[in-house]
Amino acid sequence: MKKSRKAAVSALCLVAAVLGGCSSTGGAPRSEGGGATAGGVDTPRYVVAMVTHGAPGDTYWDLVRKGAEDAAKKDNIELRYSSDPQAPNQANFIRSAVDAGVDGIAVTMPNAEAIGPAAQNAVNHGIPVVGLNAGMTAYQDYGMTGFFGQDETVAGRAAGERLKDEGNKRVLCVVHEQGNSSQEARCAGVREGLGGEVDLLYVNGQDLTSVQSTITSKLSQDRGFDTVFALQAPVAMRAVESVQQSGSEAQVATFDTNAELVDAISDGRVAWAVDQQPYLQGYLAVDSLWLAKRNGATLGGGRPVYTGPSFVDQTNVDTIEEAAKAGMR
């Protein structure tokens, strides 16, 4: 019985270490004089920089940031968030964070060759660095201690296999960021899983009006597509409009969700989405850096921690609707 109790306590302590830390306070918030607490944890105020490739107006990154902010609040961290779709600017943000002497950095690497050396420089300065969302195949090459996201090829393959099972044969895969290796991997995975024809259509994701007109034009010229596959929710919503305008009979499927996309799945305008839980990516990235500072812990033992893929369709969309509309999914 004593051994069973010890095992149970150890298991509970392990869960607490991930969610909030197993500490001398027994997991309770530590008072900061006068009854105040510092983020509900017993650690000093840390500064963490998060650098992403999010473009202005892309609601996906609002979810990543919300997760990061919630973890920062819990962990008594000052979060410094910056984003730019241009890889050189991301690298400059990382260098600025190093110069500022931050305690940790979380970064996306859609272009590892351009961004990775800046991350390695941070590691060389003794700053723990983790990756999220993009760069799963390269983060270890630059000394980063963890990664939180999905394997884009695996996710794309799963999507392609689902399309094949549904009887689809010809897909228009819409790439909204040229040069983003993660998006190319998604479409390649769809092609592999489908075993059919996948055409790539490159659009400017920062101009959704142009996105819609480009998709509409393509569908008007070629009636053979049975699926338009978007790689983000805002593009998927424009694809819905394009299908209607062109008179196409193609269905729309997509990667990633937001509140508008969840509604579109509910009413059938979008067939389904591949979800990688962006809120969780942001949350785990920041929380892992807090754990690294607190007691040298790592999540995943240096290996990727998968946050996806999973499918959201009409059979389960109701279970995530509230979280999506609260900016937590």
From TrEMBL:
Keyword Oxidoreductase annotated: no
InterPro entries the record matches: Bact_Solute-Bind_Prot2 (IPR050555), Peripla_BP_I (IPR028082), SBP_2_dom (IPR025997)
Signal sequence coordinates: 1-27
Domain of life per record: Bacteria
PROSITE patterns associated with the record: PROKAR_LIPOPROTEIN
Subcellular location: Cell envelope
Pfam families for this protein: Peripla_BP_4
Keyword annotations of the record: Signal
Similarity comment text for this entry: Belongs to the bacterial solute-binding protein 2 family.
Protein name as it appears in the record: Substrate-binding domain-containing protein
Organism for this UniProt entry: Corynebacterium lujinxingii
